Amino acid sequence: MDRLIETIEAKDNPSVVGLDPTQDLVPSQVFSETIELDEDDLATLVRQLEGFNNPQDERLLDLINAADSPEAKVKAASCAMDEMVPGAGIVDGFYAFNRAIIDAVKDVVPAVKPQIAMYEAYGSVGFDIYRLTCQYAQEQGLYVLGDIKRGDIGSTAAAYAKHLTGINSRGEDFNGQPWHEDGITVNPYFGTDGITPFTDAAKACDKDVFALVRTSNPSSKEVQELVLADGDKLYERVADLVEDWGADCVGKYGYSRLGAVVGATHPQQGKALRERMPHTFFLVPGYGAQGGTAYDAAQMFDGNKRGAIVNSSRGIIGAWKKSGEYKSDMIAEEALDLVGRSARAAAIAMRDDLKSALK
Amino acid sequence: MDRLIETIEAKDNPSVVGLDPTQDLVPSQVFSETIELDEDDLATLVRQLEGFNNPQDERLLDLINAADSPEAKVKAASCAMDEMVPGAGIVDGFYAFNRAIIDAVKDVVPAVKPQIAMYEAYGSVGFDIYRLTCQYAQEQGLYVLGDIKRGDIGSTAAAYAKHLTGINSRGEDFNGQPWHEDGITVNPYFGTDGITPFTDAAKACDKDVFALVRTSNPSSKEVQELVLADGDKLYERVADLVEDWGADCVGKYGYSRLGAVVGATHPQQGKALRERMPHTFFLVPGYGAQGGTAYDAAQMFDGNKRGAIVNSSRGIIGAWKKSGEYKSDMIAEEALDLVGRSARAAAIAMRDDLKSALK
Q: For this UniProt entry, which segments traverse the membrane (chains A, B) (predicted)?
């Protein structure tokens, strides 16, 4: 966790911007045209596909060749491409949107937290845009926290842990940069053997993992607040497991590579967890749109104003909608400029809000 | 769950084959060559890239153009492609391997369960192969259970639920076939609002969801067997929640669209859960390689020999390694023929093993 802590102190700002784009958070003029092929495009496409050699391209070629008229071939190609790159026009818009946000906040915040679900919803092309977003953010000097919430039995968790250690075309370790994530979130329901592959991967490539402990959503109490025979609540026992799982990888600031997700919507529980988990760094979602305040989030910090980083997603990336400056006849560049300016102002306001709450 | 139950009865076989390929489960001659570019390839590649228009291709073009000698351009392109399609040669091998398995077992088993982590480990190209595997299995008449174990707060769970409902380039519903999954697995740690988006999606497109209750791995007891104040164990309370969450989507065979994952490695707990969850269909992992027997798995079935489907992964897809017939000088086709024959024999043996245990 040392790299994250140092990045936070360099920016003097313990907050992270969640990059969770949805269609209604992105100005419509930012989305590129969807795929529309004519017969010339088709000829070019066929030449390109013949130059490649993978199952997806061969499948598309077969579909085109099976069609019995030029019109049918164009239709087959358009439908097949729409299936093969679902939402390509949308995720291209997400990438332009994310870059505008990153460029506008990179000197204000230490980190960004892309939510992989928002990209995964669009299939493998969405996965590409997720990775490119992480890579662009890293190139701008930001710590990238991949919010992937993976978890499974040991052998499968080891495969998910490639998010950190990576792999290349020869099956070798790929220098820890396949998705350009510096840290990821994981689910603790499987116990030790579902977590060890992630912490081992983090140790191997100087990265971090954050396990869910007390999530910010309303229903979370149905499971996480179940009272155990000894009076503890489930999330408190999970907290003890997380503190224990990270005990062998505590860094120079006293925090381990295994952090915990603790929602700002539970300030008193978070304050108690801060005491209970002295070597566990907190990722604190739920500030802003979900109702958590800076004072609530401040409960998750230690006496040195360290030990936590607070996330805001919609409050930052959707700030342009509340600016009153948006006009539907703006061109994409004007809309993205407004998105960036609004996000920057919101990120600065959040930083100052947190700093005064931590005084 | 009606479609799954009818597919099981049509094949008279309550088992599912887990498609969890790893490099050591696939004969080495099946893997295609990794990317090696010469200057002619580079010229072709540049022409192809110029014909496209997406951030990833533009990024690759920029990298090539920035290099200052032909050798440097080839090196830049090779490195960039290796980063952009990590493990492409490996996952192409996985796809050939999966098709050999599917072709060999499609008349024996009703379903396959691809484990997305094994593909996701290779980035977006792995995601393509996961989807193509699901699509090929559906085309062969198999029910496809996507083992994705996703879970998050409501708004994010809704994005993950696109695995079932899908999306197209216009952001519209994509006929429920983006990943060609008929069902998916999810994690219950978030409570009701983390599950409802998945069950709503399943209802909208006649698909199914399986929530983790009692997983097959050794450490799972650390969390799942925690004793609650009223004497119940955590997994029993989660079981009650799952039975309740599925109450409004019970099908004609008495089972809801929300199933439960219950490991064959816990036969007595599974037997008790079968009583406790009368409307919940079970996905039972842990048979074979993980130690669960047919008798153990049989505890998860109801009086009509219904109510569960048993998974085996390594025991079927890795059966070729125990055949004694493999030779390192086999060509890929010979190795894949052995993989298929061995998988088919293992799938038939598992079916008969389960049927005699259910007698």
A: none
**What is the band of B174 on the pLDDT scale with cuts at 50, 70, 90?**
very low
Task: Kindly determine whether residue A121 and residue B167, on different chains, have CB atoms separated by under 8 Å.
Answer: yes
The two tokens of residue B5 are 């139950």
Sequence-distant (6+) residues with CB within 8 A of A347 are A15, A17, A104, A105, A108, A109, A316
Tokens 């005491």 belong to A275
pLDDT at B348 over 50: yes
CB B119 within 8 A of CB B125: no
The reported pTM is 0.89
Cα–Cα distance, B326 to A339 (Å, whole number): 60
Helical axes A55-66 vs B124-139, angle rounded to 10°: 50
Strand B282-284, strand B308-312: pairing: parallel
Q: Which residues of B touch A163 (CB under 8 A)?
A: 120
Nearest to B169 among A34, A169, A217 (CB): A34
The tally of domains found in chain A comes to: 1
CA-CA distance, A127 to A117, in Å (whole number)?
9
Pairing label, strands A183-186, A143-150 = parallel
Residue B57 lies in a domain: no
DSSP structural state of residue A145: E
Q: Is residue B137 part of a domain?
A: yes
Helix ranges (DSSP H) in A185-331:
192-204, 221-224, 234-245, 267-276, 294-298, 314-317
Q: What CATH number did the domain enclosing A116 receive?
A: 3.20.20.70
> What is the rounded distance in angstroms from the CA atom of residue A37 to the CA atom of residue A117?
29
**SS3 for B23?**
helix
* Average predicted confidence (pLDDT) for chain B: 90
SS3 B126: helix
- Is residue B339 within a helix (H) or strand (E), and if so which, with residue range? helix B332-357
Residue B131 and residue B119: Cα distance in Å, rounded? 10
Residue of A nearest to B314 (CA): A155
* Alpha-carbon separation of residue B52 from A75, A82, A112, A120, B42 (angstroms): 19, 15, 29, 22, 15
Please compute Rg for chain A using Cα positions.
Answer: 22
Residues of chain A below pLDDT 70: 32-36, 51-56, 79-86, 167-178
CA–CA gap between residue B309 and residue B304 (Å, rounded): 13
Residue B226's φ and ψ, nearest 5 degrees, are -60, 135
Q: Which H or E run contains B282? A: strand B282-284
Residue A315: both structure tokens together: 């409050």
Tell me how far CA of residue B44 lies from CA of A349, B70, B171, B342, in angstroms. 50, 14, 33, 42
Alpha carbon B178 to chain centroid, angstroms: 15
Range of the domain at A222: 1-26+87-358
Helix then strand then coil, % of chain B, to nearest 5: 55, 15, 35
The continuous run of DSSP H or E covering B97 comes out as helix B88-105
Q: DSSP labels for B125-188?
A: HHHHHHHHHHHHHHHTT-EEEEEEEE--SHHHHHHHTHHHH---TTSS--TT-SS--SEEEE--
Look at residues A312, A322, A318, A313 and name the one whose alpha carbon lies nearest to residue A353.
A312
A169:B86 CB<8 A: yes
User: CB A169 to CB B117 under 8 A?
Assistant: no
Spatial separation of the C-alpha atoms in residues A262 and A15, rounded to whole Å: 14
Place of tokens 């910010």: A216
Structure tokens at B143: 């029910």
- Please name which of B297, B107, B286, B281 lies closest in space to residue B183, comparing C-alpha atoms: B281
Record: contact A86-B227, CB cut-off 8 A? no
Q: Which of A95, A189, A213 to mutate to test the interface with B (most CBs of B within 10 A)?
A: A189
* CA-based nearest residue in chain A for residue B59: A132
Helix axes B39-51, B55-66, angle to 10 degrees: 140
A210: phi then psi, degrees, rounded to nearest 5: -125, 120
Residue B36 inside a domain? The answer is no
Instruction: Give the pLDDT confidence of B8-34 residue by residue, as tens digits.
Output: 999 999 999 999 999 999 999 898 654
